[in-house]
Design a protein that fits this description.
86 residues, ribonucleoprotein, mainly alpha, elongated, structural constituent of ribosome, Ribosomal_protein_uL29, Helix Hairpins, Ribosomal_uL29_sf
Length: 86
């Protein structure tokens, strides 16, 4: 699964896209854990990578909630209203 694993790439995504990625990664994590429990897992490093990707996405979401980083959707809305007023 090719995911945006760089925090700067994730900051450019919408909240819906981030939530979708988290859902997909959690499904993959479940599958990987199941494979590990049954002895079918070949790449144990993928477990750690998926967990880190999920944490990275949650960090970006929390940054937006706290106002540390602006939400790209809100930026687009403010730019649209600014051009309408001009």
């Amino acid at each position: 699964m090719a995911t945006a694993n760089n925090a700067t790439e994730l900051r450019g995504l919408s909240r819906e896209a981030l939530n979708k990625q988290v859902r997909e990664l959690k499904e993959e994590l479940f599958t990987l854990r199941f494979q590990a429990a049954t002895g079918q897992l070949e790449s144990h490093g993928r477990l750690r990578a998926v967990r880190k990707d999920i944490a990275r996405i949650y960090t970006v979401i929390q940054e937006r909630n706290l106002g540390i980083v602006s939400d790209p959707e809100l930026d687009a809305d403010t730019e649209a209203t600014a051009t309408e007023k001009a």
